[in-house]
Amino acid sequence: MTTIVFPLSRRPDKAARIALIACGDRPGKTSACESCSEKAEGLLRIACTEALEAVAAAVCSELHNGACAECTTKATRILAVAGEPA
Ligand SMILES: [Zn+2]
Ligand SMILES: [Zn+2]
User: Fold this and answer.
1) How far, in Å, from the CA of 43 to the mean position of ligand 1?
2) Ligand 2 centroid to 17 CA: how many Å?
């Protein structure tokens, strides 16, 4: 499991972190692309319902066959972020 380290003085809000997860975070990457940033608010809303499959489907572009394993993993992390105390 990779740990994303953000400077504590400038901790991005949940939506920004969710955007980064959805976009596919990797070491050195600190911000999501525009389309993932736009999706993040909606993902956060879905994540608040704790519906893993719904979040995974929203992240994944391969909707025809259900969310792929990668997006299901992302969704699990998004749920964890959404469930954190603000
Ligand atoms: Zn993206
Ligand atoms: Zn996918």
Assistant:
1) 13
2) 18
Total-model pTM = 0.79
- The residue segments making up the domain with residue 45 are 13-82
Q: Residue 1 domain-assigned? A: no
pLDDT in tens, 10-65: 556 899 999 999 999 899 999 999 999 999 999 999 999 989 999 999 998 766 67
Q: How many domains does the chain have?
A: 1
Ligand nearest to the CA of 22: 1
Instruction: Report if residue 51 sits inside a domain.
Output: yes
| Interhelix angle 14-23/69-82, nearest 10 degrees | 170
What are the residues whose beta carbons fall under 8 Å from the beta carbon of 11, sequence distance 6 or more? none
Of 36, 10, 12, 22, nearest to 84 by C-alpha is: 12
